[in-house]
Amino acid sequence: MYLVNLAAVEFHTPMWRAGKNNEPRPPDLLVFDLDPGPPATISQCCLIALRLRQRALDDQIELLAKTSGSKGLQLYGSVAPKRWAADRTNTYAHGLAQELEKDDGDLVVSRMAKPLREGKVLIDWSQNNTAKTTVSPYSLRALGGPTVSTPVTWDEVEEAAHGGGTPLLGFTPRMSSTGWDRWVDLFASLAALKDGRTAAGHDACLRTPASRSTTTPTGDRPVSCGWSAANA
After folding, report:
1. Which of 133, 126, 137, 156 is closest to 68 using CA atoms?
2. DSSP letters spanning 164-177
3. 73-78 and 29-36 as β-strands: parallel, antiparallel, unpaired?
4. d(CA 230, CA 86)
């Protein structure tokens, strides 16, 4: 309610929590912000996201995806179990971005200079910094048309990588709040991972099709993947 009274539209949060004296604790999240340089689109972002996901899995880091609510895609992973310092998270993200740029320099860039970004996907690793924030899941975006930063499944990412493009991943507030199984939130498994646990149905949540209707492996009830209208 405090933020509503301030007329806040967007919500941006850091990758770390604050301690008792408001000092930054070690980061518990890793983030990659994928930004397409025209004429590249979100489809190219999704292609790079799939590659980043596989590379991070090599280091036992499971990434989850969400739209930025603008042009691109953002990937989050838990580094809480690793207990990395902030500079270690930054270095790791930078290293992966450089690695993918070396492998496919025609499509990927890890450097911020705008002249280098035309037709390529910038892997913005620099968000892994205690002085920076990233737009939160389900945040509105203050753009010309109403959009929402929305978690998406890897099935949706793969479909968009093969030509689904912006229409597939362009979520409006109505689309993000109605028509889906209210029990399902793809990012709840990330909250569990941040605490060093594995969420029930974690894999099912990651692979659920666009209908977002899923059940536990036993099939007896919906997977509770966290956020719902009840705790909005």
Report:
1. 137
2. IHHHHH---HHHHH
3. antiparallel
4. 34
Which helix (H) or strand (E) covers residue 204, if one does? helix 202-207
* Crossing angle between the packed helical segments 42-57 and 86-103, to the nearest 10 degrees: 120
Residue 177: φ, ψ to 5°: -115, -10
Measured between alpha carbons, how far is 174 from 171 in angstroms, rounded to an integer? 8
Q: Say what the alpha-carbon torsion angle 49, 51, 52, 56 is, to the nearest 10 degrees.
A: 140
The average confidence (pLDDT) of the chain is 77
Instruction: Go through 22-33 and write b for each residue having 16 or more CB atoms within 10 A of its CB, e for each that does not.
Output: eeeebbbbbbbb
Q: Which residue has the higher pLDDT, 72 or 185?
A: 72
**DSSP SS3 for 160:** helix
How far, in Å, CA of 123 to CA of 48, rounded?
Answer: 9
> Is 60 exceeded by the pLDDT of residue 220?
no
Are 157 and 168 in contact, with CB atoms under 8 Å apart? no
R_g of the chain, CA atoms, integer Å: 17
* CA atoms of 104 and 82, how far apart (whole Å): 29
pTM, rounded to two decimals: 0.77
DSSP 8-state code for residue 230: G
Quick: pLDDT tens for 142-191.
887 778 888 888 988 998 898 765 555 666 655 555 545 433 567 776 76
Strand order in the sheet with 108-109: 108-109, 121-124, 29-36, 73-78, 63-67, 151-152
**At 43, which helix (H) or strand (E)?**
helix 42-57
For residue 154, give the amino acid letter.
W
Q: In the predicted model, is pLDDT for residue 67 greater than 60? A: yes
